[in-house]
Amino acid sequence: MSEWLVLSIAMASACAVVLIIVVLNNRRVADDDDPSETPDVIEYMTMMIGVVYAIVLGLAIAGVWEGRSAAQESVRIEAQALHEVQARASVYPAEVRDRIRADVDAYVRHVVDDEWKVMSERNTLTERGTELLDKVRADVTDYEPKTDHEGQAYQPLVDQVAAADDARSARGQNAEATMPGVVWFGLIIGALVTVGLIFTLQIRRTFRELLLAGLFSALIAFLLFLIWDFDAPFGRGMSATAEPFLDTFPGITG
């Protein structure tokens, strides 16, 4: 099921539930009931709870967006570091240079073709990816420079492999959900309370009031969906992508 279908169902369901409750509730209202008699304190509390929940939603959206941005940045750093390894290896003898570049290509191909799917489904890295990156590290560190030029390139190559390894570790950590379960509990309970409070305002069955009630509930559903979608940086529709690898290594096909 696509994320957009999930969003459509969630928004439609929230809107339908609210409208049904409003209609059923109005059937129980007496003909002489006056909606203007809503106590001021109820209107004040409804407004304050709505403001507080809006702040919480904003902080949650900012948090998951920051997590997604960090995940995408780790991918970019890893791809750039591996590209630097291939480029700086040009000063080495052909046999060593070709071996380093071939092992880097093999690692990138595995990340794009295999590891990315594992991250999206299991939120973890693969052992094969670790083995391939260790092989690249061994290619770089095991070679003993023969000339001053090669010696000058040795340490930067080691540093770039270390940077790629560090970015890979960050990518693995960012693959997990960023929102704890207790936060989701608070968001869902807050949504129910916030939407439920609109019934205390004695909404009538006029088109304008029903429209506003439906749009309000649909908006809450959309914002919760947005948080849920961003909460898996590598696993859902608006997740981080492997574009940095594909752009840096155009010969690799995902």
Give the termini distance in whole angstroms.
22 Å
Q: What is the structural class?
A: mainly alpha
Average pLDDT number: 84
- Uncertain stretches: none
Order of helices and strands: HHHHHHHH
Question: In what range is the share of β-strand residues?
Answer: under 5%
Q: How large is the count of helical segments? A: 8
Tell me roughly what share of residues is in helical segments: over 70%
Would you report the number of β strands? 0
Largest sheet report: none
Which outline best applies?
elongated
Radius of gyration: 27 Å
Question: Could you explain how this protein is built, in words?
Answer:
There is one protein chain. With 254 residues, this protein is mainly alpha-helical. It is built from eight helices and no strands.
Write the layout of secondary structure elements.
Blueprint lengths: L2 H24 L13 H49 L5 H29 L4 H15 L6 H27 L6 H17 L9 H24 L12 H6 L6
Helix pairs in contact: 1-7, 2-3, 2-5, 2-6, 2-7, 3-4, 4-5, 6-7
